[in-house]
Amino acid sequence: MNIKTGTSLKKAGAKHHYSGTDFWIKLKHAATAAGKELVEKSLWLYYASHRPETPTWAKAAVYSALAYFILPTDTIPDFIPGTGYTDDLAAILAAVSTISSYIDDDVKSRASEKVAHWFGKNETGKKAQQSSSP
Length: 134
Known about the structure:
Helix content is 57%, strand content 0%.
């Protein structure tokens, strides 16, 4: 099964354990515990996967990393203080590295706005504006 040749994500199994709805639920509930970096990089992946220019193989890498983040059972349980999200961050960073050429300024800007919304303030210290869309 070669994902690069256009095999559908469904056939490739990349979306088998990934759900956009579950991603948003997990991210919103775990944002503070997971930390700003994991949240921001996860959003980079999410937004990059929705760009029409992002190829199927890159989307498969994204969905695999986000599925690992969503799964309730993983190598290091998320409830362990200080280290619970270490393995999730490693999976996310590996995917970011893999698809970095598809993470453009628009993707980073959208993620930055959402992070500012969830964490309260942007880099300049100004109160973040409310945003209702993903």
